[in-house]
Amino acid sequence: MPEPLSVELDPPVEVPGGYPMKLAAQVGGSHVQASWTYMDGLPGLNTHLDSWLLGLLDAAAPAGSRYRPAMALNNVPAVSPDMTVSAVPVQASGTIIVVREKVTRAGTNGMGSVTSGTVYVDTVSGAVHGGAELLRPEAMPTIQSRILGVPAEIAAPSPQGPPLTDLVLDPSGQLTVTAELPGAPGRRVSMRMNASDTGTALSDYGRQVLGQLNAAPAPRPATAPALRHVNCDLVPCAALTYDDGPDARTTPQLLAILAEKNARATFFMTGSNAAANPSIAKQVADAGHAIGNHTFSHANLTKLPPPAVKKEIERADAAILAATGSAPTMMRPPYGAADAPVQAAVGKPLMLWAVDSLDWQSKNPAVFVPKVLKEITPGATVLMHDVQASTIAGQLELITALQGQGYQLVSVPQLFEGVPLVPGHVYRSRPARQ
């Protein structure tokens, strides 16, 4: 087994179904920059990353408080951040994806520190394993002794050996172990074990991983863009919503702007317009946006008896299903009119809004765009209308401004991910993390 080498971490690799995220936040007195990669179809990994990132951000927050997404708004990246966090895939073969987590702290007087770890994700079961699980427990003291440069019989009984968290196994059977030296914060060494030494140190799980690293990547189903995981307790989110369409002229214009800005949105369609413009409704769905039920005829539901309310919902569901292939799981009552009988009759969660642009009233981007920018906060749902040409005229300015402030523009299902949505209940914005 060779002596410790200089630290050289593996470069990131692209993984099908992976999508990168970034965050720049002022947390307490620290400027934090973070980058990480979520994976389609792997909620266990995504939840693990969320927990890890929120834990770091909470620890950086002032005593007695926790991180809030608003801390990442209007944040100008510093030349040298106080803390840089990353979690990126460094290997992907067979049913295994290897993700390295790394934290760099600037420190003072040039005395910074770097810590890193790896997790191994099974793309079939979704299970997440720490890198140390590659090894048999009895093999760890020998590896720790090599890193420390002392005989194994001295290192073995010592609790001071460096924790082994960053281990990358390659298809040839070589294992690279990177560890921080005890008593020397920020000083790390990396040691590469040959295949023979690795073979004697691997656990049953480690041998399973080695077999997968020599297999072709296993295919995984893609997640619809409107349902992709985004943790809105971590990044500042807003949901732009558009009512009353689809419209053959204005809705495609809006779709082009959303595509240009890589923004997700939600369209609350009337059944009558979906039936009149089925190809446009399908364009909305195919572009990866969410669709909600806005009744069939844009009726004021509070003026209808419950059977008529149900009929409005059912007819709209049928028209949207026929056009797009999927029936909506949420609805928005026209005019926001919903009393107790309506709430009981609709059979879906009622998604209202936290910010009303009043775009239909002003018909002027110079009026409604500043109104939205003034009133919006992380977790908010914004009401607009895609049947108004003046609304479309203001969308590029609005979306550019929101993204410039740090907002992640998501669909309503993404905004409320993890929040149980109950039929008949009214929702306006994502509740704050408890």
Topology:
Layout: E1 18-27, E2 30-39, H1 43-60, E3 83-93, E4 96-108, E5 111-122, E6 128-130, H2 140-148, H3 152-155, E7 166-169, E8 175-180, E9 188-193, H4 195-201, H5 204-213, E10 237-243, H6 250-260, E11 266-269, H7 271-276, H8 278-286, E12 290-293, H9 306-324, H10 340-346, E13 350-351, E14 355-356, H11 359-362, H12 365-375, E15 380-385, H13 389-405, E16 408-409, H14 412-415, E17 426-427
Parallel strand pairs: 2-3, 10-11, 10-15, 10-16, 11-12, 13-17, 14-15
Antiparallel strand pairs: 1-2, 3-4, 4-5, 5-6, 7-8, 8-9
Q: Which class of secondary structure composition applies to the elements?
A: alpha/beta
Mind telling me the C-alpha Rg?
26 Å
CATH-derived topology of the largest domain: TIM Barrel
Number of structural units classed as domains: 2
The helix content, as a percent range, equals: 25-40%
Stretches where pLDDT is under 50 for at least 5 consecutive residues are: 1-7, 152-158
Strand content: 15-25%
Strand order of the largest sheet: 1-2-3-4-5-6
Q: How many separate helices? A: 14
Cα shape: elongated
For this structure, what is the CATH class of the largest domain? Alpha Beta
